[in-house]
Automatic annotation (TrEMBL):
Gene3D superfamilies, A to Z: Glycogen Phosphorylase B (3.40.50.2000)
Organism: Paraliobacillus quinghaiensis
Domain Glycosyl transferase family positions: 218-353
Source superkingdom: Bacteria
MF terms (GO), sorted A to Z: glycosyltransferase activity
Protein name: Glycosyl transferase family 1 domain-containing protein
Length: 426
């Protein structure tokens, strides 16, 4: 499938918010192996491309902006009636003829503000002329600013900013604007759609996190846990897996656990990983719910510290059942990124810092000053984990910060927007 994005950009300056919206839509399409075709003004310099705009899979097609060798200067027509400049229709015809050629082999055309903005009025008319020769081509018209009221008295061609085009869906970023959008273009609300602006958190991360994202879904899990540490039994990785299993099994939550691990001389990594996975599975996780960053060849000896901090900005639950800690810096790191904290109450350092951070406490085996403690759960460890899993998920749901952080990551991710809003229109 080929999908054209008709922007008529003269440049790709990221300070122009629409450039960022288009960049995210390009990422969505390329991730789903859809070929995007970027339609920009012939005056747009491609030498300034950066980031996703450099991807070789994008086809760039420049739309003519000359009439008889002279540059077409766009004029801002926002009025409902009046006169257009002398060469207006000639310019529109030239652009329309070029659009027919540039859109001949695409399956759908997404337009950004072409029908709305007064300075794109010439392209509004040109697209309508081109559409007459491309009757089977589906158009999706995005409006990114608040819809305007329909004038009472209008004359052609100025009615183009307030009238529908055949085989076109009209899109606005929020549901609240749909009634006004429908009125502006004089279409039924059934021909209008909502496509929210997305939050592409991954675009702000390091290469390490981007690499990890190719292996693990960072966006859709309702509970995302990141646990960094040396792969030693003293860090009690299996207890993290067990509690996460109880959350998934008893609270009907999707769960992903990412262990940012590095080797230890205490125990063979492969042996301990198998034990951790078997423990998680026995309490309710599936094997694919657990991932060790050391399984990525580039990070077999450890995941970058910056990457761990970035992952904490994605995760929403931090569990530290460690047997012994002198301080617990990762607790502070997780807290600083807005994670719900669950700490081992029996470890003095974790109890001390946890009380300062208003953490939630559970009891696991621990080393104290001069002696060790060993927990016995009645009637069983499974029952103990079930009880606390339910309390933890309820507290996370009621916590406004945790709720909004989780919702922003899941509901407004490019993946969610693409699958649930944009792709169905194509």
């Amino acid at each position: 499938m080929k999908v054209a994005l008709l922007t008529m950009f003269n440049g790709l300056d990221s300070t122009y918010s629409l450039v960022n919206v288009v960049a995210e839509q390009l990422r969505m399409m390329l991730h789903d192996e859809i070929t995007p075709v970027m339609l920009v003004s012939e005056d747009c310099s491609l030498d300034t491309r950066y980031g996703i705009f450099l991807d070789d899979r994008i086809e760039w097609r420049k739309v003519v902006n000359r009439l008889n060798g002279k540059q077409i200067h766009w004029r801002d027509y926002t009025q409902a009636n009046g006169k257009v400049h002398d060469t207006f229709y000639q310019e529109a015809d030239v652009i329309a003829d070029d659009l027919v050629k540039k859109l001949a082999d695409v399956d759908a055309c997404i337009m950004h503000d072409i029908h709305y903005q007064g300075w794109h009025f010439i392209h509004n008319i040109a697209v309508r002329k081109a559409q007459e020769k491309l009757p089977d081509l589906k158009f999706i018209a995005f409006t990114h600013s608040a819809p305007v009221n329909r004038p009472q008295n209008m004359e052609w061609p100025f009615t183009a900013r307030f009238s529908p085009m055949p085989n076109t869906l009209y899109v606005y970023p929020t549901q609240s604007g749909i009634p006004a959008l429908a009125k502006q273009y004089d279409v039924p609300e059934g021909l209008c759609r909502v496509v929210n602006n997305s939050l592409d958190l991954l675009s702000y991360t390091s290469d390490a996190v981007k690499t990890l994202a190719n292996e693990v879904d960072l966006f859709s899990p309702e509970i995302l846990v990141v646990y960094p540490g040396r792969l030693t039994q003293g860090k009690k990785f299996e207890k993290v897996a067990a509690l996460c299993g109880a959350i998934k099994k008893n609270c009907e939550k999707t769960v992903q656990v990412i262990f940012c691990d590095f080797p230890s001389g205490d125990i063979a990594s492969g042996k301990y990983k198998k034990f951790i996975k078997s423990t998680g599975i026995s309490f309710g996780l599936d094997e694919e719910d657990m991932f060790f960053t050391s399984d990525i060849e580039a990070y077999k000896n450890g995941f970058p510290r910056q990457g761990v901090l970035e992952l904490f900005s994605f995760s929403n639950l931090f569990i530290c059942p460690s047997f012994s800690e002198s301080f617990g810096l990762t607790v502070l790191e997780a807290a600083s990124k807005g994670n719900f904290l669950v700490l081992n109450e029996r470890v003095p350092a974790l109890e001390e810092i946890g009380k300062q951070l208003n953490a939630y406490f559970m009891k696991w085996d621990a080393r104290n000053f001069g002696y060790d403690t060993h927990e016995k759960y009645q009637p069983s460890e499974a029952a103990y984990l079930k009880e606390h899993a339910e309390i933890i998920t309820n507290l996370m749901r009621e916590n406004q910060i945790i709720h909004s952080k989780t919702k922003a990551r899941i509901r407004y991710s490019p993946q969610w927007i693409w699958v649930n809003q944009l792709k169905p229109m194509l």
